[in-house]
Structures are given as C-alpha cells and as structure tokens.
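Re: the request from the purification team.
They wanted to know what the chain is likely to look like in 3D before they choose a buffer screen. I agreed to run a prediction and write the result into the notebook, where they can find it.
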Amino acid sequence: MTRIIFPLLLGIATLFSSAAQAQSGVRLADNAPDSYTVAAGDTLWGISGRFLQQPWRWPEVWRLNRDQIRNPHLIYPGQVILLDRSGPWLSIGRRIDGSGAVRLQPQVYSEALDAAVPSIPLQIIEPFLSRPLVVDGPRLEGSATIVATETSRVLTGSGDTVFAKDVGDGADVWHIYRPARPLEDPLTRETIAWEAAYLGTARVTERSTERDTPATLEIVSAVEEIGVGDLMLPSERPAVFSYVPHAPAQALEGRIISIHRGVSETGRLNVVALNLGERDGIERGHVLALFRNRGSAEFNGEDGKESFTLPEKRYGTAFVFRVFERVAYALVMDADGHVTLADAVRRP
C-alpha cells in the first residue's frame, strides 16, 4: 500500500506545482538553482535570470508586500535568494553559520542604501539619467540661453563665467546643451524631437531682479567648449529607485530610431532611443520585446517570380529608463544578435 500511496502523493504534488506555475505564466530557467548568494556587482535582472526564463518578471514571483515591491532595492551582497518551485516563488534569506552548520533563514535585513543591488546596471545609464537628452518644442521654449561670456571670449570652459537670460528661480544648477541632430520616425520620416549634445554644467552665482540684466553663472564642468547661443535646462534629480520592470498595460508598436554614439548597430547593455513616449503610455520600468525585420525574398518558380515578406524574429528585450513626450530611452538587456535601427519594439 505504501508503495502505491507514495507515488500517488508525489504525482499530486507535481500536478499542483505544475498548475501553480502554469497559472502564473512564469517559467523557471533551465537548471535553476535552489538558492543563490548575492555578490557585489549583481543586478536584480541578472539574479532573476538565474532562476527565470524571463528575468524581467521577477516582481511577480517575489514574496514581498505591495510597499516593498515598489522599491526594487531590497537585495544586498551576502544575502541568499531562495527558490520555492511550487509557485515558483523567490524569497530573501541570509546565510547563518552556527556551530559549523550552514542554515538559510528568511529575515528582515537592513543595510546602507548605496550598497543595495539595483534592477539594472546603473553605471551604464547614469550619464543618461539627468542630462537633457531629447529636446522638443516645449523644452526648447523653456530653455535659458547664454547671451554673453566674460571678457567677450568666443568659447569658454570650466571655471569661466557666462551670462544667460530666462534663468528661472527654481534651480541653481543648469545643464548646458546644443540641439545636435533630428530624431526621425523611421516609417513616416517625421522629425519628432532633437537629440541634445550635452556640453557641461553651470551654477548660478548671481541673479538680477532687472528684466534686462541676465543671470551670472559659473561653468562647473565642460565636456565641450561652450559659447554664446548655447541653451540651458535645469538639472534634474534621477528617480533611479522606482525602476521595477513590468510590461505595458496596452499593446504598443514602436521602432528604434537612434543608437547611442550614432552607430547603426549595437548589442546587449547598450542604450537605444525609441519613437514611443509619454503620449503613447510608455513609462520608466516598461520592458519591451525587440523584433528583427528580416526583409523580403524573391522566389523564381514554375509560376514565375514571387515575392515574400519574411516573418519578424523576436530576439531580445529592452528596459525603458527615461521617458520624454514622444521619445524614450531604453537599455538593451538581452539580444540574440545585432540590434539595428528601425527594429520593432512591442509589448512582450
């Protein structure tokens, strides 16, 4: 009887486990470990990729409350991630060493925020978080303008003084930029925004109450020479800690319109610009699937020449981290092959 009951119970347990996994739609990675000890330099995307076939779906399988899930910075080096295959579920534990035995015990853990593990590699996207990347009509109209330099120098750099009009009272630190090149929709050829060339940063040293007197600023840093006519926008504080990956609620159809550094192809862990923005419902943390356009083919058969449009291939995912009205920037997280201009992006 025991020989019969035990396989039956095992089969029922397996059935419930499979049902729970199928219900959630989250699939385990091949050879997913039972646990993993977090190391310095890890990201939540990378950790989740050890357990899940779709790493960006980690918020669905963590046993965390609603407030915790809003803040992805919950994991620290030295902690242990535990896998419960019946969900699947992931939970946070810490390795405890007592009397020579190693034991895993879930518990609340506290550590300095700057030591926490981020969702994605922040060192890659940091330059894109606060600088003026995209300039559209409203941002152009709201920009301050450098109208003069001290001693009438044509070009200036770090430590020099400049004078600018339309410098508001809401910010003391300003980013200096120059509209560089138009961003065109690859299908309609419409210019939807301009990609800004970041020049440096300036700090307000003196404001005037007189309308005809410009504000005085000191250039704090400069990556290129700065001159009269260059524009300025207030420095923005990046909202890094709210990056929780999730799929868009609605269907989306977009294209890659620009690749950082002006190249035509790129790969994993590189930044791309999309022709989707706030008005399309895009927000920070959205994960989008990448699709390669395979083009068309002609076949000469008995019935003559025939043309065929080849099916697209889904080849990767991108993580949106900054959004403007009509343009968004995303980090390519996974890619099977090259990422190319005009490749499609959609809801995964």
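For the purification team: The helical segments are 2-24, 44-51, 66-70, 122-129, 137-141.
Please add any questions underneath this entry.
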